[in-house]
Amino acid sequence: MGTVDVLFNNEPIQLESAKVLKLNKALGPKRSQIIVTNAMEDVAMRMSHSEALFQQGDWEGLGKAVRTIGKISGQIGMRSLSAVCDAASIALQNGDAPAIAATYARLLRVGDQSLSELCEHRDFP
Q1: For range 95-103, the mean pLDDT
Q2: How far apart are CA 12 and CA 8, in angstroms?
Q3: Is 8 part of any domain?
Q4: The 3-state secondary structure of the chain, one letter per residue
Q5: Which residues constitute the domain of residue 44?
Q6: pLDDT tens-digit profile of 59-85?
Q7: pTM over the 0.85 mark
Q8: Domain-located, residue 56
Q9: 5 within some domain
Q10: Which of 1-10, 45-54, 114-123 has maximum average pLDDT?
Q11: In this structure, what CATH number is given to the domain that contains residue 85?
């Protein structure tokens, strides 16, 4: 009998704190906190909306949502989520249903972890 490989759903989340610090420096701590918080809420809302698009098989709508999530997450230093969005976009462009399902599940998982991590480790004074 062959061996069974175990896939782990945990992966380290990469945050680019320099982006938040740069916002802090340019806009001040209060304004940058508002911007980052609004961006995080936008990412969370778009992730929630994207679940309906995925369930409906609306790959075009899902592609738009994923690209937007990737752009917003990149702007606030969520490097891991931005990278997963790139992978999901490629799967969607190729129309590869198993790859879409796998990368989208990863996007939701990494997105949730990234939002939690950024909430816990903001670089605000």
Answers
A1: 96
A2: 11
A3: no
A4: CCCCCCCCCCCCCCECHHHHHHHHHHHCHHHHHHHHHHHHHHHHHHHHHHHHHHHHCCHHHHHHHHHHHHHHHHHCCEHHHHHHHHHHHHHHHHCCHHHHHHHHHHHHHHHHHHHHHHHHCCCCC
A5: 17-120
A6: 999 999 999 999 999 999 999 999 999
A7: yes
A8: yes
A9: no
A10: 45-54
A11: 1.20.120
* Predicted confidence (pLDDT) at residue 125 exceeds the cutoff of 50: no
- Residue 70: C-alpha distances to residues 32, 41, 53 (Å): 19, 14, 16
**45 pairs with which residues across the strands?**
none
Integer Rg of the chain from CA:
16
Q: Is residue 81 part of a domain?
A: yes
* In contact, 63 and 90? CB cutoff 8 Å: no
Q: How many domains does the chain have?
A: 1
Q: For residue 112, count CB atoms less than 10 angstroms from its CB and return exposed for 0-12, middle for 13-18, buried for 19 or more.
A: middle
Among 114, 115, 108, CA closest to 47? 108
Given a cut of 70, whether residue 5 has pLDDT beyond it is no
